[in-house]
Design goal:
InterPro entries: AB_hydrolase_1 (IPR000073), AB_hydrolase_fold (IPR029058), Carboxylesterase_BioH (IPR050228), Epox_hydrolase-like (IPR000639). This protein is of the alpha/beta class and about 280 residues long. The protein contains twelve helices and eight strands. Strand 3, helix 1 and strand 4 form a beta-alpha-beta unit. It starts with 12 loop residues before the first strand and ends in a 9-residue tail after the last helix.
């Protein structure tokens, strides 16, 4: 299947896992690559990346449990450890031997944890502005964690303004209103407010501590890609992370913030296509 970026975004399949019912989809044909989004996003983050990659690869997309159109199993928490376990189950469900794994933000942490801790084989790994090295829990999120009940009881329209301000700092360029709404609408109203805070409550650097300790064991080609103007995880983190992984490549995307696929989608797609060993077709 080809990626139709003109239709409203949404993944067509539903896969039952131990962590929840996962929205997923598969596009293109060729060597497999699995794209893993982070927070506070969903698979929509990859919409302009999946299409060019699908020209030469089979691209697997999914929404993390509790994000996008994926549900979270009763009693489960949306942690990096849970996302890594979900990725392991999906790779088995899709019957992939050693796909390329690509992760952004906490999705980067989940990819590395899936490979190192869950023992998911990979042909190569790329992590973009990845939540791995401490501290990756941002000051805004740390404040929310310390005062969860205050934020939970806050009027939803006030809370909405707070997270809108936070999301504005995710990009270097201003998001068009429809794009901004595609991210924020998932957290609108009282239910969305509680969903956001349920996620925040379970961001823990404990989930990446053992990953960091095992970075030197990575034996597959690894690429660390970062936005030049990331306000959430500064670019020096890219240097530190690449330095901890044997033979890792590092690329800085000019003019891009933390959501680098929004600021510079063509550049990111080209870097990933080259890394995955295929030319990136020009944007139409």
């Amino acid at each position: 299947m080809t990626v139709d970026v003109t239709r409203p975004w949404g993944l067509r399949d539903r896969v039952r896992t131990s962590t929840g019912e996962i929205a997923a989809d598969v596009f293109g044909a060729g060597p497999p690559v699995v794209l893993v989004h982070g927070t506070p996003s969903w698979s929509y983050l990859w919409r302009e990346i999946a299409a060019p990659l699908a020209e030469a690869h089979t691209v697997y997309l999914w929404d993390l449990p509790g994000y996008g159109d994926s549900s979270l199993a009763d009693g489960a928490s949306a942690s990096i450890a849970l996302h890594a376990r979900t990725l392991a189950e999906l790779v088995a469900y899709w019957e992939l031997d050693a796909p390329a794994l690509v992760g952004h933000d906490i999705g980067g942490g989940a990819v590395l944890r899936a490979h190192l801790i869950e023992k998911v084989p990979a042909s190569s790994i790329a992590v973009l502005d990845a939540a791995v090295l401490s501290p990756w829990v941002t000051p805004v999120v740390q404040h929310m964690q310390r005062h969860l009940e205050v934020y939970r009881s806050m009027p939803s329209h006030v809370f909405g303004e707070i997270i809108a301000g936070h999301v504005r700092t995710a990009t270097h360029l201003e998001l068009p209103e429809p794009v901004r709404a595609a991210y924020l609408d998932r957290f609108a109203g009282r239910d969305g407010q509680q969903r956001w805070l349920d996620h925040v409550a379970h961001f823990s650097e404990d989930d990446t501590a053992d990953v960091v300790g095992a970075l030197g064991e990575i034996a597959v080609p690894t690429h660390v890609i970062w936005g030049e103007h990331d306000q959430w995880l500064p670019r020096r983190t890219a240097t530190e992370l690449a330095g901890a992984i044997p033979g890792a490549r590092r690329t800085i995307i000019p003019g891009a913030g933390h959501f680098l696929t929004e600021d510079a989608p063509a550049e990111v797609a080209a870097v990933l296509a080259e890394w995955l060993g295929s030319p990136c077709p020009p944007r139409q």
